Amino acid sequence: MPDISLIVALALMVIKVFIVTTILFVLPLPLTYVERKVAGHIQVRLGPWRVGPHGLLQPFADMIKLILKEDIVPDKADKFLFKLAPLMAMLPAFVVYAAIPFGDKWTIPFIDREVTLYIADMNVGILYVLAISGLGIYGLIFGGWSSNSKYALIGGLRSSAQMISYEIAVSFSAIGVVLLSRSLSLLEIVKSQGGNLLHWNFFYLPVGPVWFAIFLIGSLAEINRVPFDLPEDEGTLGAGFHTEYSGMRFAFFMLAEYLALVTVSVMSVVLFFGGWNAPFNVPFVPPILWFLGKVILFIYFFMWVRFTLPRYRYDQLMTIGWKILIPVSLVNLIITGLMKI
Amino acid sequence: MSGKERLNIFELIKKVVFTDFVKGLSITLGYNVRGSMTLKYPDQEKWIPYKRFRGLHTLNRDENGRELCVACELCSKACPTQCITVIPMEDDTGRGISDRVAKVWKVDLVRCLFCGYCEDACPTRAVRLGRDYELACSDSSCNLKQREELLVPQSVPESFEGGVVAASTFEASPAGLRVKADLTKTKKRPW
After folding, report:
1. Is residue A331 domain-resident?
2. Domain annotation covers residue A110
């Protein structure tokens, strides 16, 4: 007969996975609403207003529309890959969250049991996150290849080229963080930034802000957001890799994209802004709130950037990736190494 | 030599600290917090135009309730699109200010271009272009406006100054959609 504590631990794990997955599935609803509102307000409009009070029911209307839409599979498409691609894009976005620490330990009131606010504490968490979020590119390439459409194919190719160029810079910035925190485990990285604001990796002058800039630009390019959204460049490519998708399959791509946005925000907070650590000593604010607050600020920042900057040209994108970010990160790596001796 | 080089270094520093980026972001942040220019039309707000606005035609009466129109047909002659039809008739019962009144006075709103020549031509200030501008309907029944309809006073009285945003209510009924403005609750426009 198995040990009772093992069963409890297993049950806790299942519950945690269930909760995280549910939250991630529901998250795109408020995110689409917020994105539309931010877009509207930045363009001095109202944004969604008429569906429900302040347009709050707009995401549900969108959801109903997407569910009721006809599911079109092009006649000459590679049917198997075409149906596989949205899942390939969506799955890594969820799997990444297995390694992300949302908080340290938390005691459940009344039953006095400690639970950890992360699903798994991997000793190579940072590599896991980079590797798994890199897998999402397969969805985009498969989608672009299998639709048998020029625009979709070009979009898929562009996104893979972009991914390869910027994954290097992002990995370098991850190495920088590992140097600063002396650990590959995300949990240890957050713990090393404890104390106050000045212990955060971002404020490790002069290299911290540079690593952060490299990470930010590189991840913006990796999640295909403005100003690097060339794979779905409306002006020249129709809609890029998801031109031929409609209904729920398209919704899966959107889901993956929004989750990638959240992942990048979470990773910025974890790697550079101290995770759940408070910037200064404030009583009565639980650490998870600090974490959520920082993530929300970052999500707002990415939306803000989206409605501010125009899209880069393709050659500019490549120049930024290869000729600026990679040399800068190499130099920065040497400086960081020297500072940490 | 040194001047040019210093300029380049200055430009480089600007690039390194993302000056242009920060400038753009601060502008959009300003827009983000300044509030919307869009009116909450039709649910909560409605734009009341200025007096000079040229909307739906209206036929006026004098202070005794007599029609000002004398059916002189000058408006239909002045009309560049020939959208006004006037058929005069004799009437000495005091319906109009003279013995000659309009039997038919109709305007085809699809052809009308709201130039205001008819009000310029009118010798008795009977026809004016009022401030009703919601002229759309789902069939062609509302395209032709007859005298009887146009004699009814419009929702915004002639004396009201206009150029404001009024509180409004949106009424949807089988008879049609209506946006009813409350002229006592007005505010300045947001732009």
Report:
1. yes
2. yes
